[in-house]
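Note to self: keep these together.
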Amino acid sequence: MDAVHIAAAELAAHRGDACLEASALGSCVAVAALDPTTGVGGIAHVMLPGRPLRARSDDDMAAQYAEPAVELLLERLTALGSAPGAICACLVGGADVLGDGSEGPGEATCRSVEDALAERGVPIVARDLDGRERRSCTLDVATGRVSYTVGDSVPRRLWEPPA
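Structure:
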């Protein structure tokens, strides 16, 4: 099985036997998107809400902002054979890392990711957002199982496709 780590502002999409992981999610949001009918899935490790003020010409920071990250992730899933309308998403992260209760980057990024998915008709089937601790998010593409950790916890199942 291919194990792929997705760093901040990166994304990856695969078909079949791969395990994708985004870790060190403080205020960042991991978007785990998958099409359970085709065995295609991916994760975007989103850092910021909205889109950049200037368009970027490179893919180095493709998932830095919520809107282009969602667009590119869905494009890559479709290129791997996912059918539009068959993709669903799980969200992990968006912590209040400042711990002061005010709206910080995590809350704004969560809202921006949710809006970008809604605009494209992608349902959010599970989420673990907010709080104050870092998280990780793992997607087993072959099974569609999404799991996460909070702090140093053992992995917990967030969602998997119905049998």
